[in-house]
Batch of 3 targets.
Target 1
Amino acid sequence: MNWASAADFFAMGGYGVYVWGSFGVTAACFALEIIVLRARQRAALRASGSGSREP
Amino acid sequence: MAINWFKYSSPASFYPLAGRLTPWFFAAAAVLAVAGLYISFFVAPADAQQGEAYRIIFIHVPAAWMSMFIYVVMAIWAGVGLAFNTRLSSMFASALAPTGALMTFIALWTGSLWGKPMWGTWWVWDARLTSELILLFLYFGFMSLQAAIDDPRRADKAGAVIALVGVVNVPIIYFSVKWWNTLHQGASVSLTRSPTMAKTMLLGMLVMALAFWMYSIAVTLIRVRAIILERERNSDWVKALEERQP
C-alpha cells in the first residue's frame, strides 16, 4: 500500500497540484467531449429529414 | 465465417453497427481505466528520483501515443477516401481529428505539469515538445480547412492533402529524442529492447493506453454517426430511422 492516509494520497508527496491537475483536466476533457458529442448527435437527429418533409 | 465487409462500407449499414458497438467500447474503456488507475496509484511504487510526480506519465504517455497513432489512422482513412472516393473513409478521418487533437492537448498539458516540478519550467522549445505542438496545429489545420469548405466531398479532398502531408511529422515526433539533443527524455518503452522501467509501472501505462484506445474508438464511433446523419439527412434511410420517431 502506497498511502498512509487519504490526506497522504491527495498530497501526492507534495506534487498534488501537478498530479491532480493532470488527471483532473484529462477527466474533464473526456467528460466534455462526450457531452458535446451527445448534443451533436441529438441535433443531427433533430435536423435529419427536415429539409424535404412532406407537406 | 464469411462476413461481407463491403456491406459496412455504406454509411446506411454502418450507422446501426456503430451504434451497437459504441457501448461495448465504452465499457471496455471504463473497466481498463479503473484497473489502470488502480495500478497507477495503488500498485506502482513511488519513483526513486521523481517521487509521486512521475504518476503523471500514466496519462501523459498513453495520450502522447494516441495523439500520434490517431493521426496516422486519420491520414490513412483520408488517403483511402481520396484514392477510392469512399465516403465513409473520409467521414472516419473527420471523426478522428477532434479526438486526436484532444489527445495532443492532454499530452502537452500533462507534460507541462510534469515539466514544472521536474525540469523547473512549463515549456521548452526542444524538438519533442515543438513537434508535438506542430501536431496539434496540424489537427487544427485539418479541422478548420474542412469547416471552411461547404461541399463535404471537396472538404474531404482538401483535408486529405493536409493529413497526408502532415504525416511526416509523426516519425519526427517519435524519433526527435534520438535525432536531437532534447530536454525530453528518451523512450522508456520501445519495440526493439526491453523496457527500462519497473514492471508494475509499465503494466499501469499499458493498461491506461488500452483504456485511452478503447475510449478513442467509442467517441470516434459516436462522432462518425453524427457526421453520417449530418451529411445524409435527406436520404430515405435516415428518414426511416427508428430513433428519429418521437
Target 2
Amino acid sequence: MEDEARMTPEESLSLIRQQEAATIHRLVPNPLFTYTPWGVSWLVGYGLFFLSYGLDGTPILPIPWGWALAVLLALQLLAFGVMFYGMTRSSLRVKGRSARKSAMFGMAWGISYPTAMAAASRFGPLLPPAEIGLFYTCLTLVLVAVLYMAGSAVWGDQRMFFLGAWTAVVVSVGAIAGPGIAWLLFSLLLGGAFITIGVLGRHRP
Amino acid sequence: MTAQLPDLDPVIHAQARLRVMVTLSKLADGDHLAFPSLKDVLGMTAGNLSVHLTKLEEAGYVEIEKTHKGRTPVTYVCLSRRGRLAFEEYNAALRALLDTGKD
C-alpha cells in the first residue's frame, strides 16, 4: 500500500500547509456563522429600539415597542440557529479535553441566562417602565461580555477577548447614558463589531 | 536534493501518513479524533487509512483506542507523545533541507 512516489521537501511543505488549512477549517467554526448573525440581530433589533424610542423618548419612526422587541428576539433565535449550523456543519468528532471544555462552556451559557432572567424578573418590575428594557438588555449583554472574555481564556482566542471587553465598555457607556443613546450604541458599536469581526475572520488561517 | 531525503523520517515522509500526522497534530493535547472523521477529512478509504495507521502505530507515533458508544464500536485516534516529537523533528529536518536548498 505504499502509494507514494518520493516527495521533495518543497512538496512535503506544500502538503503540510494544505492539510493544516483543511484541518483547521474542519476544527474551527467559521466566525461568519458564529459572530456575524448576532451582530446583524443587534444592529437591526437595537436599531429598531432606537427608532422606536428616539433619543429622549420621542419616537423617530412610529414603530411599536413590542414589534421591535419581536424582531430582536426572532433575529436572535435565527442567529442561534445559524451559529449552531456553523458549529456542527463540518465539525469533526473529537473526544477529550476540548469536548469537555466546550460542554462546560455551553452549560455556563445555559445556566447563567436563566439565573440572570430570574433575578431580572424579580427586580425589573420595580423600575420605571422606560428603564426596564435597558435593565434586561444590560444584564444579558454583561453575560455576553463576561462569557466571551472567559471563553478567550479557555481557547486562547484573542478575538473573543476583544469582543467581550468591547461589549463591556459599550454596555457601561450605554448604561450611564440611558435608553435612547444606549440603543444607538448597542446597535452600531456592538452589532457593527460582531459583524466586522465575523466578516474579517471568515477565511481563517 | 533527493540525496538528502533519507534524513527525513521514512515513516512520516509518505504523502498519506504525512497528512495523517498533520491532521492529528492540529488536535489539542488530550483530544482524540474519531476514525470516520479522520477518514472524512483526509478523503481516504477506510482500508487505506487503516494500513497507514497501523504503520504509524507500529512506530509508536499514534495511539488507537477502540471503544463502544452504546453497541456501536467507535475507534479514536491521537498522536502519542513520541509521535508529536517525531513530527516536530520531521518539520525541523524539512526546514533544514529547504534552507540548505536555498544556499
Target 3
Amino acid sequence: MQNNLYFPMTLLAVVIVSGCGSMPQSSSLAEAQNSYDSARANPKVTRLAALELEVAGGYLKKADRASCEHASDDIVDHLAYLTKQQVAIAEQTAAWKTAELLVKTATLKRNLARRLAKGAAGAAKRRTLIRQQTVNRQTVELAAAGVNP
Amino acid sequence: MNKLWYLSPYPMIRSIGVAVAIVLTGCASIPAPTGQMAVSKTAVNDAISAGSNEFAPRQLRIAMEKMNAAERAMVDEDYLRAWQLAEQVQVDAQLAALSARSAKAQKAAYTLQEDNRILQQEIERNAQ
C-alpha cells in the first residue's frame, strides 16, 4: 500500500515545487495585476478603502492560481475582470469618502459663515444707526447754537 | 496501464481518476447559481436607487445587459456562464452605485463651496 503512494506524491511535490513563476501571463491577468499594483501604491486608496482592496487582492490570487493550474482562458479572463472591477470599486470608494469629507467640512464652514454673516450684517446696521444718531444729535446741537446747517 | 485507470483498485489513484472524471464531465456538476443571481439582482437595484441611471448610465447599462444575459443562461441551464455573468454583474453594479454616490457627493461639495464663497463676500462687504 505504502509503495503505491510514492508516484502520485512525487508528482504532487514536483507540481508544488515548480510552481508557475516562469508561466507567461495572459494579457488580461497582467492588466489586472497592474491596476491592483497602482491602487496599492495609492495611499488614499489603502487608507480609505483597505477592505475593498483586500477583496481585489483575493480575486487576483484566484486569477493567478487559475492561470497556474492551466485553467481555460475564459476562467482566467473572468477572474482578471473581477479583479479589475474590484480595484475600481476600491478607488471609487476612496473618491466617495473624500467627497463626503469635503461635504462635511464645507457644511461646517457654511454654518460658521452664516453666523458670521448675520453678525456682520448686525454690526453694519448698528454702525449705520449710531452714525444716524450722531448726525441727529449734531443737527439738534447746531440748531440750539442758532446755526442753520 | 489499464485504459480505465481511473477505476484502478488502488484508492489513491482511483480518487484522482474520479476527480479527473468529474472535471471532464464539466458543466453537469455545476449547480444553478440561484444565490449569486439574487445577490446580483439586489446589487443592480441598489445601483438604480443610488442614482446611477443619472450619474453612471453606461456602467448601469452594462450591468443590466449582463443581468439579462445571465437570466437567459439560467433558462438554457448553462450554469457556468450564468454564474460568471452574475458575478460580473455584482461588481459592475457596485461600481455603478459607487460612481453615482461619489459624483453626487462631489456635486454637493462643489455647491456648498460656492455658497461659502458668496457668504464670505457678503461678510467682507458688511465688514466695511
